[in-house]
Amino acid sequence: MLKYADFDVPGGTLTVVTDPAATGDRGKRSYGAVIAATYRGLDDAIERIEGYDAPVRAPLDPVAAAIGRYCDGELLALDEISVRQQGGPYQCEVWLHMRMIRPGTVDSYGELARRSGRPRASRAVGTACSSNLIALFVPCHRVVASNGLGGYGDGLQVKRALLDHEGAAY
How many domains does the chain have? Predict the structure, then answer.
């Protein structure tokens, strides 16, 4: 059964959903893997993860601890959280490289396309960003347009709040 919790983080309230039966990109964890994280609430999270029963509220202690440390300024704390989301091969490659963007830095869509092995695929990187179900943990807020901030599914005010919290110049 899926579990969820809400957390106050820079930019607002983040709803996080975990699948205790899942193994994510950091291996099997006590909470399984984070499969959705959104600033738009539980209904949005459920809509994003079709095919599952509605999650039940739970404390998600290891995830809560990492989020708390992140909010307290330990910006690498979220790196330990295991995540899992479905996507095509290139989307998964982009998400992997997105998790490598260090807090306090940003990459352009073009830079991320190059690092992901397809230098002409800036638009595909944008699609991977907009398809990302795990905001904050797969940090699409650290991906910006070459001529400015670019977009963000949870709103530019959230993107700015996260980048400001991380001390990123943008």
Answer: 2
